[in-house]
């Protein structure tokens, strides 16, 4: 490989600092969801198509490979490189809805979920529906010609594309939708224009080529280049646009694309049909397809056995003695309840003739449908998460004609047995003849690689003998590039080579992907996963966690925190202590200091990893005796500490910022930014004490006001009218409907324990836990009364504290309820009528999301305002207690896009359900955020 001249790459982009060669950046970005690992020489965060054009020219001039990366969810190795890696995830996130939702213009950094969220208000959705929709981006969807469970070959990327703007390897930017696109392509890229025209003529004049292309692309097929474009289109500019689809970043960079959208069908019913074997399930497919089933998902016998171990598995699976059984998850979708009922009736009428092994029925109940889909989607997580330590999970997909699907699956099972791959479940999209399977192994030793090589050869022979394709959805990548010639034959393979040369004559764009002459290339660069921490060792690097991570646009994501830790361990095992030192030098800030430990990553993780738990342990390991002792002392004297903090904020609030800022910054410089919070003018003065008199008579609930409301005073109704805070509001609301609350004795010295937990101060955490649980036991009469908390993060903290308690045999477990839940259930129904606000901007919190509180939060917000807006780019604000004061740059990054959305709502009021989150959003938007119960109390007076 040519040596890298950084100066030309830095000169090629608007911001030279966007080009990084730091070890932590190179190793953090080296991993995608595939089983391949290459370490880039440099990572560039591109900001515009002009940046990309400059990078392509610099790459071609130096002969240095260049690869684009967006979501990094690809499974075949098409987003890794040992050259220059260009990150287009952080930017390129614009969406423009056209023609009232019938069309949409979108950039490559937008996730499919975000795009569908924008289109939902128009009753439309994006055609492709990949299972990774929460994390995969439009860039990868275009690059891989993504499809999914529903769209098949009708509504996939290729079929729904209208036009795209592509940056060619020469640096030329082409908008294929422009009126003069044909003439411009001929003028600026004459060799490409004429070459595509000649290739199309060559293919059309060869009957064997036409027949093979039509047969191959009658199925889902992402193997090689999309040669069907040479038959489907006449104009070179249209051929170009559709060749880009599925080209996996080897022909150019898509800066934006315009797609036709499809209707969003909001009514659905699903049922799980269990058959005696795969052949019986396969035989039922034509009849089920004829009933109009939108989705038909296959699960083999091993999938059902794994499914029986999953929580919430439906009885139809849990109760069966699985032998050779197979199941089809069938779902119908419709635009109205009436249409859905017709489809259900049609589906139900054929069930008796299918020879099922267990009774089946279709249900439209959301909870029951959720259980069925959890069974299907939980397979990958269950097997991948349980793999032996240090092994890699390899997820593959193939497609065959539907009539031979059952036979092919039998053949695959035979290969698993032949080569000793246990726990290799088969599942997938039966309606399309497309199934996925997983192999877990070390893929490191000679014997492991020989076994994998022999298995792959037999699998290739099996699939091609059935007239199938070696890749249906996941792209050719590196894993199947050596087999493209075998699937298409010499003539069409030469057509593909010509296409590559026409677009990329220097061959620097993602080499080794789609086409590869080395027959053993798929056996090289397979990554290993050394054990680093029990909390995260089961990570499969899928990247699902990244879109919900508040630090994703400033430092590292959860996936990157984990893979960088693995890189440190791999370097240590290899004796490369220089690399260990370089990575560890930056790991503290990039990974530990700027993690909000909000746990949102766990909500998206298919193997249930909370990277925040790892970070908390790392902080705990780094905490010295002095800090631990100080925080333990604080736990013992929390009333004085919290009241002292409140007093300090009250004093500071009365002083000019010019007096506070210089000594504050000096203290941070001396003691460290992760130790001393940074003062900012929007911070309020301190709050008041929490203690209340003991009520007389009947008590309905124990009330645990959060200490955060003592430290930080309430938001004002207006600059001239200070508010009274959530404790006052919740007490007033409860009294208004005849509910009596009891605040525990000694409340001002109690806390949920979250500050100690998040900072890793174990001694203080245990001290506070013991104090708080003892007080709650007494106040609740040993668990008889519920405990209500008024800050969502503190509610979650109390729940964690309670989970660690082992009640005695005669004790009831303590029950923790958030004030929002309590209000929705016990206060709202009893309030008198009142006039609501016109609109409200609502900020759910990470804790309200993790606890499943958002439905109740929406109910309460709906009682406050006629229109409730949750920003499209909503996410954790990353204020995280004091994290937003220690590292304000983290909160600024996390809230930037959300703040723009909030401004566009022009809401009459702004609300959340946690005081520090309210502070973070107030800082981000300039609008005063208050607890939603404060607004409810004022309106219902």
> What best-fitting shape do the alpha-carbon axes yield?
globular
Structural class computed from helices and strand pairing: alpha/beta
Terminal Cα separation, in Å? 74 Å
The number of strands is: 27
Keywords:
941 residues; alpha/beta; globular
Structure description:
The chain is α/β, with parallel strands linked by helices and 941 residues long. It is 44% helix and 13% strand. It has 39 helices and 27 strands. The strands form 7 sheets. A 6-stranded antiparallel beta sheet has the order 12-14-13-16-17-15, sandwiched between helices. Strands 5-6-10-8-9 form a 5-stranded antiparallel beta sheet. Strand 5 (95-98) and strand 6 form a beta hairpin. Helix 25 (625-636) packs parallel to helix 31. The longest helix is centred in the middle third of the chain and has 20 residues, at 366-385. It is globular. It starts with 5 loop residues before the first helix and ends with a helix.
Please give the structural blueprint.
Blueprint: H1 6-12, E1 19-20, H2 23-28, E2 42-45, H3 49-62, E3 66-69, E4 84-87, E5 95-98, E6 103-106, H4 112-120, E7 124-125, H5 138-144, H6 157-160, E8 161-167, E9 173-175, H7 181-188, H8 190-204, H9 207-216, H10 229-232, H11 236-244, E10 253-260, E11 262-263, E12 267-275, H12 278-290, E13 295-299, H13 301-307, H14 315-318, E14 326-334, H15 337-349, H16 366-385, E15 392-399, H17 405-419, E16 426-429, E17 434-441, H18 446-465, H19 484-488, H20 490-503, H21 558-574, H22 577-593, H23 600-604, H24 611-622, H25 625-636, H26 638-653, H27 657-671, E18 701-704, H28 708-711, E19 716-718, E20 721-722, H29 725-736, E21 741-742, H30 754-759, H31 762-779, E22 787-789, H32 792-803, E23 816-818, H33 819-827, E24 837-842, H34 846-850, H35 854-864, E25 865-869, H36 883-886, H37 888-905, E26 909-912, H38 915-925, E27 929-931, H39 932-939
Parallel strand pairs: 2-4, 3-4, 18-21, 18-22, 22-23, 24-25, 24-26, 26-27
Antiparallel strand pairs: 1-2, 5-6, 6-10, 7-11, 8-9, 8-10, 12-14, 13-14, 13-16, 15-17, 16-17, 19-20
Helix pairs in contact: 1-3, 7-8, 8-11, 8-20, 12-17, 17-18, 21-22, 25-31, 29-39, 33-35, 35-39, 37-38
């Amino acid at each position: 490989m040519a040596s890298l001249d950084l100066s030309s790459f830095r000169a090629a982009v608007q911001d030279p600092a966007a080009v990084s060669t730091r070890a932590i950046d190179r190793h953090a970005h080296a991993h995608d969801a595939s089983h391949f690992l290459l370490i880039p020489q440099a990572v560039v965060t591109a900001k515009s198509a002009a940046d990309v054009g400059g990078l392509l020219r610099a790459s071609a001039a130096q002969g240095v490979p260049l690869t684009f990366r967006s979501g990094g969810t690809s499974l075949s190795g098409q987003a890794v490189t040992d050259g220059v890696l260009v990150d287009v995830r952080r930017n390129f996130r614009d969406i423009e809805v056209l023609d009232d939702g019938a069309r949409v213009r979108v950039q490559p950094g937008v996730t499919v979920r975000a795009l569908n969220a924008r289109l939902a208000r128009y009753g439309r959705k994006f055609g492709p529906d990949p299972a990774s929709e929460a994390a995969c981006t439009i860039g990868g969807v275009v690059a891989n010609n993504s499809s999914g469970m529903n769209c098949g070959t009708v509504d996939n990327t290729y079929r729904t594309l209208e036009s795209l703007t592509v940056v060619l390897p020469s640096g030329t930017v082409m908008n294929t939708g422009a009126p003069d696109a044909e003439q411009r392509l001929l003028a600026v890229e004459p060799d490409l224009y004429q070459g595509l025209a000649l290739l199309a003529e060559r293919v059309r004049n060869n009957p064997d080529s036409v027949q093979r292309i039509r047969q191959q692309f009658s199925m889902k097929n992402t193997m090689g280049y999309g040669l069907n474009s040479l038959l489907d289109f006449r104009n070179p500019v249209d051929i170009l646009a559709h060749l880009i689809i599925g080209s996996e970043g080897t022909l150019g960079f898509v800066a934006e694309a315009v797609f036709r959208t499809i209707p969003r069908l909001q009514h659905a019913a699903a049922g799980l049909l269990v058959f005696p074997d795969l052949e019986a399930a396969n035989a039922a497919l034509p009849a089920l397809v004829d009933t109009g089933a939108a989705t038909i998902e296959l699960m083999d016998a091993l999938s059902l056995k794994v499914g029986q171990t999953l929580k919430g598995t439906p009885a139809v699976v849990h109760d069966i003695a699985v032998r050779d059984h197979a199941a089809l998850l069938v779902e119908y979708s419709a635009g109205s309840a009436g249409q859905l009922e017709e489809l259900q009736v049609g589906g139900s009428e054929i069930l008796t003739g299918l020879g099922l092994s267990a009774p089946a029925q279709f249900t439209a109940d959301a909870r029951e449908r959720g259980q069925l889909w959890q069974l299907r989607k939980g397979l990958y997580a269950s097997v991948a998460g349980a793999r032996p330590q240090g092994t890699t999970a390899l997820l593959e997909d193939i497609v065959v004609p539907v009539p031979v699907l059952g036979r092919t699956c039998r053949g695959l099972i035979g290969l698993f047995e032949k080569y000793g791959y246990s726990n290799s479940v088969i599942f997938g999209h039966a309606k399309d003849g497309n199934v996925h399977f997983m192999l877990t192994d070390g893929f490191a030793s000679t014997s492991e690689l020989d076994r994998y090589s022999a298995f792959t050869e037999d699998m290739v022979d099996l699939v091609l003998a059935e007239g199938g394709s070696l890749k249906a959805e996941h792209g050719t990548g590196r894993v199947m590039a050596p087999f493209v010639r075998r699937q298409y034959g010499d003539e069409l393979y030469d057509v593909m080579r010509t296409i590559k040369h026409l677009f990329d004559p220097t061959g620097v764009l993602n080499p080794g992907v789609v086409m590869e002459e080395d027959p053993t290339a798929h056996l090289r660069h397979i990554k290993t996963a050394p054990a680093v921490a029990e909390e995260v060792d089961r990570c499969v690097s899928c990247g699902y966690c990244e879109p919900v991570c508040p630090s994703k646009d400033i430092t590292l994501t959860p996936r990157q925190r984990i893979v960088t830790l693995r890189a440190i361990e791999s370097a240590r095992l290899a004796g490369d202590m220089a690399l260990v030192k370089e990575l560890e030098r930056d790991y503290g800030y990039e990974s530990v200091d700027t993690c909000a430990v909000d746990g949102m990553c766990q909500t998206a993780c298919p193997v249930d990893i909370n990277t925040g738990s790892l970070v908390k342990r790392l902080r705990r390991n780094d905490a010295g005796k002095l800090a631990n002792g100080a925080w333990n002392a604080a736990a013992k004297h929390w009333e004085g500490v919290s009241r002292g903090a409140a007093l300090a904020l009250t004093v500071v609030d009365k002083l000019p910022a010019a007096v506070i800022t210089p000594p504050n910054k000096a203290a941070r410089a001396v003691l460290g930014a992760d130790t001393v919070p940074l003062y900012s003018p929007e911070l309020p003065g301190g709050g008041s004490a929490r203690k209340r008199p003991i009520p007389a008579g009947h008590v309905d609930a124990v009330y645990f006001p959060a200490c955060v409301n003592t430290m930080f005073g309430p938001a004002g109704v207006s600059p001239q009218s200070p508010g009274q805070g959530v404790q006052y509001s919740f007490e007033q609301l409860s009294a208004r409907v005849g509910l009596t609350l009891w605040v525990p004795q000694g409340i001002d010295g109690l806390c949920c324990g979250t500050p100690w937990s998040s900072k890793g101060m174990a001694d203080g955490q245990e001290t506070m836990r013991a104090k708080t649980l003892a007080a709650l036991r007494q106040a609740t009469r040993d668990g008889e009364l519920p405990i209500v908390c008024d800050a969502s993060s503190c509610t979650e903290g109390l729940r964690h504290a309670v989970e660690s308690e082992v009640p005695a045999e005669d004790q009831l477990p303590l029950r923790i309820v958030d004030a929002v839940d309590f209000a929705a259930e016990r206060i709202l129904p009893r309030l008198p009528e009142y006039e609501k606000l016109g609109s409200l901007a609502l900020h759910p919190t990470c804790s309200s999301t993790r606890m499943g509180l958002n439905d109740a939060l929406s109910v309460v917000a709906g009682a406050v305002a006629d229109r409730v807006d949750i920003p499209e780019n909503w996410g954790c604000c990353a204020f995280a207690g004091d994290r937003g004061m220690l590292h304000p740059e983290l909160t600024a990054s996390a809230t930037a896009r959300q703040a723009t959305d909030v401004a566009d709502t022009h809401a009459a009021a702004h609300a959340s359900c946690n005081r520090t989150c309210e502070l973070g959003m107030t800082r981000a938007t300039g609008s005063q955020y208050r607890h939603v119960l404060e607004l409810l109390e004022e309106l219902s007076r």
